[in-house]
Amino acid sequence: MSTARSAPVSHPPAPTATEDILQLIYQGTATATGEDFFRALTRATASAMQVYFCFVAEFAGCRDRVRTLAYWKGLDFTDNIEFDLDGTVCEDVLKGQVRYYPEGVAALFPREPVLAELGIQSYLATPMTDRHGEVLGHLAVCDLKPMSFRESELAVFKIFGARAAAELERLHATESLRQSEERLAAILSSATDAIITIDTDHHITLFNQAAEQVFRCSAAWAVGQPFDRFLSASFRQLIAPIVDKDSMEAQQIWAPEGITAVRADGEEFPIEATLSPLRVFGKRFYTIILRDINERELARQQIHRLQADNLNLQEELRRRQRFPEMIGDSPAISEVFEPMPASC
After folding, report:
1. pTM across the whole model
2. pLDDT tens, 165-198?
3. Which of 28, 27, 57 is nearest to 40 (CA)?
């Protein structure tokens, strides 16, 4: 009776130190974003690479000074700091160069006494660069003892430096977008003309404060509504051939007079308007800037009234001073030129 031999059981190879580092850092940062990501990154990197210090930093308003975004020291985070780069071990890193000093780093940088004060013996840092190669900051680890890393481990460290750069670039883009939106909101709110943006389905996507006043309704109510509810027949006839075109090459149009719009309460009023096409992420939108001509006419009439009042006052002044050299401006003369009281 023959005995069957079972096939040898194969086991996956044991993870290398490099794979351990990669896995530990990845697990520590996988779900974090923004400021939380940098804290998670420094903590996970310090643990995976078994070092005492780890920090990530960005430029602090100029190219010769940085501030830390997260700073791991020993067993916990410490306060973030700012420091000048001149004469420091970080200086060359922020010029775009990886720097690795396995030991004796404090003696190599006597102009940075804090290294000796903290007992730092070794240092490793990689620059964080954006997609255009511009240095944004750096990721660094330091230890109180000499450090020894293989090339593969240094490569993993650089990978997470690149990951930190991508997150920092995303944060900068988000902040730039926020500031841009704030500036746009300030411009729109201060504009005296009504500004409305509509999509190709004629739905309102933007409705500024002046539009609220002109159409007598809130932006919260108007956005999402079809703009057609504010269109008179003449206005609809003007914009329909442009908005309903499939072409992305529609031109700006201007209607200085002869059209009307309709307020939310149903009142029709004369306007002048411009319509401009724009493209955002491949989608077509149209911006309509319009002015209530009634308001302009009221302002013009008020100006004319003020000018007429001014002329009357000037004439009154000339009448009162008709013979200043002869009789002056005595009370008796003033009484002569005073208007006669109405008869009973």
Report:
1. 0.60
2. 989 998 988 888 888 878 877 877 778 899 999 9
3. 28
Q: Tokens 């002048």 belong to which residue? A: 272
156 and 22 Cβ atoms separated by less than 8 Å: yes
> CATH no. for residue 224?
3.30.450.20
Quick one: 159 and 239 in the same domain? Answer: no
Judge if 162 and 223 occupy the same domain.
no
User: In the block, which residue shows the tokens 């190669």?
Assistant: 133
Query: What is the β-pairing status of strands 65-73 and 268-280?
Result: unpaired
Domain end (from 149, 180, 211):
180
Strand partners, 285: 199, 278
What DSSP string runs through 62-128? STTEEEEEEEEETTEE----EEE-TTSTTTTGGGT--EEE-S-HHHH-TT-THHHHHT--EEEEEEE
For every residue of 8-41, DSSP letters joined together read PPP-PPPPPHHHHHHHHHHHHHTT--HHHHHHHH
Question: How far apart are the two ends of the chain, measured CA to CA in Å?
Answer: 147
